[in-house]
Fold this protein.
Amino acid sequence: MNPFRFHNPTVLYYGRDQMEQHLVDEIRRFGTKVLLVYGGGSIRRMGLYDKITRLLEDGGIEWLELPGVEPNPRLTTVYKGIDLCRTHNVDLVLAVGGGSVLDCAKGIAMGTKFDGDVWDIYSRKAQATGALPLGTVLTLAATGSEMNSGGVITNWETKEKLGGGSPYTFPAFSFCNAENTFTVPRDQTVYGICDMLAHCFEHYFHPTPNTTLQQHLIEGVMQAIVETAPKVLEHPNDFDLRETLMLSSTMALNGMINMGLVGDWACHAIEHEISAIYDIPHGGGLAIVFPHWMDYVVSTNPSRFATLATEVFHVARDGRSDEELAQVAIAKVRAFYAAIGAPQRLADYGIGAENLEWMAQQAVRFKPIGQFRVLEADDVLAILKAAL
Ligand code: NZQ
Ligand code: ZN
């Protein structure tokens, strides 16, 4: 494994009533004025908005609001939040929602403490210099944003969707009550499942030697996701199932299962180019791209695919070669996506060949992508064409 330094400062609360007991104390560690950031209204409909504002009021916490964060959050909304924080001397940004709301809040927190255009941090021209403290109340299991420092922002003017982060943008605290995910619609639940599984795939396919423990940890999270996903779709109000999925999504991208290795991340880079132009759900895009990427790179190391078949999908080896089992693994991945109703082709979102070359160029504009197999623009184009 590679040398590494691990530091994850997020105080993570799981379970019922944790927010009610601890939210105000957590905020008070940083001050008494918060910017409450949320999305298009789901938190109002589910009663969470009322619950939180009552806690703030009773706890003597002053707040102002930034509602309307878009799925695939926009840079313009980040700018609005930065203005509010600066004008009103906010002490902490409180994000209530899914990954988009959390990511937007990270951009706001980082941008408020940056002397310049926050977009420069996302477009690799500058590095963050600090951030306001950030707290989260998670309502959708998918991204792991509740316990990592990354965030993805879309610049709609330039049609760029870029990830950025810093040591300053780990949430100081996150509340994860699976009850808050009961109302997530079926399609968003599916996208979340695809995203958390994709994070595991990104870690699993890497070239770093001596990573036996990491391999088993990643397989464990993938097993939990694959076993739980169909059950959650059948019983969306089952607390235990929703909680298993939620913890799987946190663990998939909080840095713990991938210590000392550099994952592939080509499929994420490709998906971000698709949603930068077509504004599709991130998890849906990943479900489309991943099987085609797998077809394209499988010859690099078939044995890694073979263990995916045997350890995660419980396929008996039956004397088959790694190459044969690798094909079984890819078929199993496709079957899993089909079983949960994930999209399979770009055409499912009405996407044709019109922008494929642009997307392929954009995906590699900073450098070639991928670790398991390094991809240039031509490779990305081939994968996108296969996904049509
Ligand atoms: O806007 P509201 O009304 O809240 O509705 C949202 C939104 O329409 C709804 N929703 C969320 N919680 C709900 C709910 N509806 C009913 N009940 C609830 N409890 O779901 C819709 C999608 O929400 P969104 O936050 O966009 O979904 P997700 O959590 O999948 O986040 C996707 C974004 O995260 C980025 C993606 O690229 C995308 O922009 N990612 C962030 C990462 C990170 N920070 O580490 C890593 C990921 O790989 C990913 O790129
Ligand atoms: Zn993702």
Observations:
- The longest strand covers residues 33-38.
